[in-house]
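name: query_chain
kind: protein
chains: 1
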Amino acid sequence: MKKILITFITLAVQSLAYGATCTISGSVTASATTCNTLSTGDTMLITGTLTINANYNVQASNDIVFIIDGGSITWNNNSDMNVGLNSTFVFINGGALISGAG
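structure:
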């Protein structure tokens, strides 16, 4: 069992080492520069609140991993977030998607 656990931890660390991570902590309102350097295989870690406001479209068309760890993504009014077809959302520690105002 110990050998399996060590192998799993090693693989997890190696997989994290290959992609870039953009971390959203605190309260962030999406803009054109919010995590705009992420590409396929990278990770967006959200531990705070990412707010997407009226008529603002977030284009994250690369296949990235969204980890919402205790944080949230809030959509307000007519906002939109387009992600790659093979993107993955992981929710832990109460992470959430929230339909906001409007």
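note: Residues 31 and 40 are 20 Å apart (CA to CA).
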